[in-house]
Amino acid sequence: MGNQIVNAFLKVLGPLLFLIGIIGNFLIVIAVWKKRSLRSTANYLLLNIAAADIICLVFLPLTLVEKYLSFQGLFSDVLCKFFVSFHVPLTASFASILTLVVLSVERYHAVVKPLNAGKRLREGTVKYAIIAVWITAILLTLPTYIYSVYQNTSKCDYSLQEKYQKIYVSILMSLAVFIPFIVIIFCYFRIIRELYFKNKVEPQNVAAEEDARAKRKLVKFSLSLTSAFILCFFPLTITVILDKLYGGFATKIYNYTGFIFVLQSVLNPFLYTFQSTNFRQAFKEMLKFKLCPCCKLN
Fold this sequence. Notes:
298 residues, Rhopdopsin 7-helix transmembrane proteins, two-stranded antiparallel sheet, globular
């Protein structure tokens, strides 16, 4: 009875969350794209995360269509590979993780290694980092597209042998989840130590004090975004690993861990609003323009 109530609650709340998340992330994309003051290396990376969130929120509901498939052939395989499976959201999620890695490394060089200017991304080069992120995410998840087929059992499945599935999942989670998280944790550990616990970063004048304050604010924002992603993504990751390696029992909690995963994509716009003055101002201006197109923005 308890599970039925929870499932009914998720079915009612789910569509609302998807809608809020899609609108919120579109606002982030539009804000960075149109507001010149938001066009920075870090914000382009945040735009990429927002784009990945939109892809997740658009494709995740399509996974529910699988139970209604009742036809065979090429079209059903295409649906299986790209629309009614978790593959596209998985690719987008890994792109988000890798983008967070790039963001943490960028913050690391800005705070811990400020003299190594050559290693920092610029507005002209950040696009290559974003392209590399998506290529890597696609390559990591490519086997899921190749070996996913619509079986006679009326569901999407993998033609890959089970033992190879386990090997692939282990390698995938190591390369796309655990190693990136280790890099992120290392970078922010060094950043926090540098900003808060080392004497050499203590400001000597007003300009240095302002710079240190701005760095702390940006690091807090980046760290909160990363923490929210890890907390929301990790339960689903553990569920997938347990399901693939041991099978059966983990499938019972997919609805719950999947719901937590969706929350991450919905929460991001709110994090941007509450923690970033620039994004908050941009959202206000966009909403003011939509509500009153004739109003002159200051």
